[in-house]
Amino acid sequence: MSLLAKLILRVLAVVALCLACAGAWTMVEANNAIKREVVATADRMERESRNLAWREVMFPGNEGSHAKLAFPEWRSSDTLRIVGPGYCVRLEWTGDVPASICGGGPESGTAPAWFVKLNDLLFGAFEPVERRVMVGRHEVGSIAAQADAGAAAQQAWRQVSVVVGVASAMAAAIGLLTVALIGHALRPIEIIIRGLKLLERGDLSVRLPDFAAREFAHVARAFNELTERLALSTEQRAAVTRRLFEVQEDERRSLARDLHDEFGQCLTATRALAAAVASASLKDRPDLSESAREIGVISEGMAATLKSTLSRLRPPELEDIGLEQSLEHLVGSWNARIGPGSGPRFQLKVHGGLQDAPAEIALTIYRLAQEGLTNAVKHGAPQAIAITVERRNAPEPQITVTVEDDGGGASVEPVGNQGQGLLGLRERVEALGGQFLAEARGRGVRLAAALPLKSVGAARATSEAA
Questions:
Q1: For the CA atoms of 222, 226, 227, 228, what is the dihedral angle to 10 degrees?
Q2: Could you give the domains of the chain?
């Protein structure tokens, strides 16, 4: 669940709690008001009844302590006026039958049944309030005032519904405003997340704006400082890597030169000497002649191995005939080595001109093609291996190279001493500001790299500065 959703749920929970508290407080106040009105009704009726009693005392023929008061009908408009709707009064004169009156009956409408039950459960029934009617020192009657249960529940419901309705409208407005404010306040989080995703994909040029909120501004400054340090350390590491590969290529050239000049000449002399011994001893020592011929065969095999090793150490075609022709020669040598009909077929597709490819990129492309072919044959059983090199000018000038086979090789770089070829290719490509990918594709493996041409000058300048 998102942070915005959690905050909204918490706001709704607080609003619901406030509404519940408002409803409970209103119910308590409504019941207290009813109780106060019952007491006030009893007091008003006691005063009115006492006044009626005094007027009856003044009538002729009602003297004496045992005289019966002949009161007129007491349910007059004046009496009804002091009994509120929903309240009932029982008046009992001494020696007379008790009489009751309710003030106008319950108000229109009824409270929901669940509210009536809840109100009775929380507050119970209303106790009657009793008063004695005194004339002088004599008690002439008694009064009991009580609230009607249905009318009391209706009055409480009316007050609760009004208060809760107004509070709900205010809470809804405040909630919507709060949600809008929270959404606006958390908008920088989306920008920060987009920046983190770009950084995860390797875009070290991403920067966050200076947010108005102080907390997000601190995060933005820390993020920008981190990306700057990462960009600087990445450039320094790339410069060191490029320098290491330059040293490695120099060592390869030096080793190839020494092998060609020293070991190659020794093999040539060995083959010549073996041929001479075989020819001279053919009549007198046929066994020696056979051994000399075997030495010659072994020397020829070693010479072929040396030639293959020299081609891997230092591809001379790059300097002599260029990248495209060197790749054609590489593919042709593999086809010739495997032989027709006895193994996989190697294909090369070139789109766009590669004549002006910088030396670093040309060498990296050649090494990637060379390692891709070796990896496909060594770790799988492909029937077809294709190398595709394409120059693109949009959205930015770059050269892409892909080596793909159908034989189920290994695209994951093994741990330990194996898999150094793919690891070295990745380091070569990333050192030039490019991207490298090794993945399974169908039954085979696909190696792909994209090398931007514009980064070569900057990479060379950084390397020289380092």
A1: 100
A2: 3-58+70-184 (no CATH), 324-466 (3.30.565.10)
